[in-house]
Amino acid sequence: MQITRWVAGGTALAAAAALTLVSAAPAHAYPQGTCRGNSFRKVADYTLTKGAKGGEVYGTVTLYHSSLTRRKCAITRVASAYVGRTSYLYVALFADKNRNKKYDGPDIGVADGSTRYKWFAGPVYAYADQLCVRFGGAIRIGSQPIVHGGTPEGAWEYCG
Questions:
Q1: Global pTM?
Q2: Residue 1 to residues 4, 7, 12, 13: CA-CA distances in angstroms?
Q3: What digits encode the pLDDT tens for the residues 44-61?
């Protein structure tokens, strides 16, 4: 009889632990996208508000840097209020390869965008050891105009 109680008690404890683990997850959890590798650290965030009515934030575009791999990585993420409502997501990252802080021929650019993306676009990577970068993102919700954001127009930043 005592073994039966111990098994029943153990089963109840396991069920309580399982419920605790399930309830520990955020109610609105969704994929966020990440840069591959543990060495990437966040450098900058810009909200996607240009073109939005009333300055509403549709999402963010984030820049990461890895001193280990000497690369930078960018990801556009949709704001939680718009998850599942996107009709287009886009991210772009440019490295100033010729070091003149102008966008011209030799500069490296990578971009990723799709109508299929619902939570994030990217990650995109550029080898940017000691180079300045520009990055940005864009989101369209349904048939509304595209909302975008990123480094200020013409600015080359986050050098190093």
A1: 0.78
A2: 5, 10, 17, 18
A3: 999 999 999 888 999 999
Question: CA-based Rg of the chain, rounded to a whole angstrom?
Answer: 21
Taking the C-alpha atoms of residue 33 and residue 61, their distance in angstroms, rounded to an integer, is 11
Report in angstroms the alpha-carbon separations of 116 from 41, 52, 139, 150.
Answer: 27, 21, 12, 22
The percentage of residues in the chain with a pLDDT greater than 90, rounded to a whole number, is 62
CA 139, CA 91: separation in Å to the nearest integer? 9
Alpha-helix runs per DSSP H in 31-134: none
132: left (phi over 0), alpha (psi -120 to 50) or beta: beta
Tokens read off for 6: 């111990």
The Cα–Cα gap between 1 and 5 comes to 7
Q: What Å distances lie between residue 41 and 37, 146, 157, CA to CA?
A: 10, 28, 16
The tokens for 83 are 């998850």
Instruction: Kindly list the distances between the CA atom of residue 52 and the CA atoms of 8, 59, 67, 84, 140, in Å, as whole numbers in the listed order.
Output: 57, 11, 35, 18, 10
Whole-number Å distance between alpha carbons of 104 and 96 = 9
